[in-house]
Amino acid sequence: MTNSFKVLDPDYETKARASFTSQGIMRLLGATMRNVVPGRCIIDLPFNENLTQQDGFFHAGATSTIADSAGGYAALTLMPAGSRILTVEFKINLVAPALGDRLSAQATVVKPGKTLTVSTIDVFAYSGDNRKLCAIMQQTAICIPQSG
Amino acid sequence: MTNSFKVLDPDYETKARASFTSQGIMRLLGATMRNVVPGRCIIDLPFNENLTQQDGFFHAGATSTIADSAGGYAALTLMPAGSRILTVEFKINLVAPALGDRLSAQATVVKPGKTLTVSTIDVFAYSGDNRKLCAIMQQTAICIPQSG
Amino acid sequence: MTNSFKVLDPDYETKARASFTSQGIMRLLGATMRNVVPGRCIIDLPFNENLTQQDGFFHAGATSTIADSAGGYAALTLMPAGSRILTVEFKINLVAPALGDRLSAQATVVKPGKTLTVSTIDVFAYSGDNRKLCAIMQQTAICIPQSG
Amino acid sequence: MTNSFKVLDPDYETKARASFTSQGIMRLLGATMRNVVPGRCIIDLPFNENLTQQDGFFHAGATSTIADSAGGYAALTLMPAGSRILTVEFKINLVAPALGDRLSAQATVVKPGKTLTVSTIDVFAYSGDNRKLCAIMQQTAICIPQSG
Asked: CA C28 to CA B115: how far, in whole Å?
């Protein structure tokens, strides 16, 4: 994996946090952006009963939603000022029941690109300080350049 | 694709609708189960501003959440009474911006199995009667048999 | 799915067949391009013992290889003259053992695009005239425009 | 990720190497199993012109084939004696052109399970000692228990 990322927009954090704030679904779910640095982003989601599937775990859709946003913002940190980002596709394996106080989606860019950026996202379920890997995602995002 | 499905539990619809009702996240998003027949399920999601990403489209997570549930319930219709279902993994391509009055996730079982069931899900964005394909998903679900 | 495709290069078949012929791995495996029309392509692979996994079935890699090429050439038929194509990513579910006289990978473009094209590919295992679905794939390909 | 794996079959290496040798496609491609330890496996593939796509790179199918086998054997090392393994599904992102002297697919089990095992596989392209990440895969494999 690439560990030293080239930053094209020094305001990446302001840009990422402003975009996150504008996502209605993050407010609806109660997600927060814990951390955003070049090529990485962490989004947390405290448990509540509105986020469940039929067994009372976090729904795979809730897990996917924060993982997808974490991946997108990790990618956005490396894009030029003024560009927008859209998810092209993602794939998620739910490797353990998402059961705990909160989920934390931790994204890392694997391959930044002018057009396409590929990231991997690990989602952990926390019970107090104890964490368990509950999902892994691979995601492709596309950069939409600023229109002249 | 397999088009004639073998039904093991005649109460499949009651079972699927009861399970759907117990998913907190479906209420939170405002999704409804429009149709459930053997091997198929349709889940609708009217637009509202709480479901958006940064450009005002439905968030990929909202699209994924209803697609994942539609796939799971399509699979559940073919499982024995008393069994539970969990998503193993899914992959989604967002092929067009999810922009419209409502989304509709339409799932079909491709390969039912005693342990694993594979489904594909098409998600359409409706603007009035006009519909546009906005996402396609492949999903694997696992049947957890009733414990003695 | 989109069923009427816009053809930008009338020589799409010549272009696709020439590219196929230049793929060393298709010769090595013994694959043939059966059919290529706008937005669709079929690649066949007769069984031989060099294509097996440990149980004597076609290896998932053989299945994936022809499915990936079929998807790529289905996409290429819709691209402008002079452009090249690369696979961005794909996801395959192996839904039944790939056992038979031959495999046939049948690709359809779901969403053509100037940059990205998404296709689905069904792979059937044939025993005589009898066919069984053994794999389904979703694929994203990227068009590399002709450089000036 | 889980880093300490529980070994159920002390003959895991003999079992994995014998299974690998029985895969016709590995001989056909010229792949070798470099290393297999509990929860990990590395498969190498030297370049030759029979493995190419239309631009002379390794075909995505060659990359996928060794990545799929590496993932399967990493999973097999953790399964009970007498069990067989099949790939359920995988997803691969081709993040850079696969161009070099050889490919090396390096698999790690992320979540072992009695029924399903999930692995991630990184594929590197080597030019001499220089390596470049060219693909990442997430894979699900299923354990078929020894029949009585």
From this structure: 36
> For B52, which DSSP code?
B
Question: Contact D138/A93, CB-based, under 8 Å?
Answer: yes
D34 and chain C: CB distance < 8 Å anywhere? no
Place of tokens 């775990």: A57
H-helix segments, chain A = 12-21, 24-29, 60-76
pLDDT tens-place string over residues B19-60: 999 999 999 999 999 999 999 999 999 999 999 988 889 999
D105: helix, strand or coil: strand
C-alpha distances (whole Å) from A55 to each of B32, C91, C92 are 19, 28, 28
Query: What letter represents residue D111's amino acid?
Result: K
Report chain A residues whose CB lies below 8 A from the CB of C137. none
Find the length of chain D.
148
| A126 burial type by CB count under 10 A (0-12 exposed, 13-18 middle, 19+ buried) | middle
> What whole-number percentage of chain B has pLDDT above 70?
97
Q: What is the pLDDT of residues D29-40, one digit of tens each?
A: 999 999 999 999
Q: Which tokens hold the place of C10?
A: 């009338």
Task: List the end-to-end C-alpha distance of chain B, in Å, as a whole number.
Answer: 34
Residues 6+ apart with CB under 8 A from B113: B143
pLDDT of residue A3: 60
Confidence category of residue D146, pLDDT binned at 50, 70, 90: confident
Q: Are A103 and A124 in contact (CB under 8 A)?
A: yes
Q: Which pair of structure tokens corresponds to residue B55?
A: 């450009």
Q: Which of residues 101-130 of D touch B (CB under 8 A)?
A: 115-116, 118
- Measured torsion, CA atoms of residues B43, B45, B51, B55, in degrees rounded to the nearest 10: 100
Residue D41 and residue D32 in contact, taking contact as beta carbons nearer than 8 Å: no
D55 contacts chain B (CB < 8 A): no
In chain C, residues with a C-beta closer than 8 Å to the C-beta of D137 are none
Distance in Å, alpha carbon of C112 to nearest chain D alpha carbon: 19
pLDDT band (50, 70, 90) for residue D20: very high
Tell me if residue D106 falls in helix, strand or coil. Answer: strand
Which domains, ranges and CATH numbers included, belong to chain D? 12-144 (3.10.129.10)
Contact D118, D110 (CB under 8 A): yes
Q: Do A25 and B51 touch (CB under 8 A)?
A: yes
pLDDT of residue B148: 54
pLDDT in tens, C12-59: 999 999 999 999 999 999 999 999 999 999 999 999 999 998 889 999
CB–CB of C88 and A115 under 8 A?
Answer: no
Tokens of C111: 């969403």
Whether complex ipTM tops 0.90: yes
Query: Which residues of chain B have a CB within 8 Å of the CB of C95?
Result: 110-111, 118
Interchain CB contact of D22 with C (< 8 Å): yes
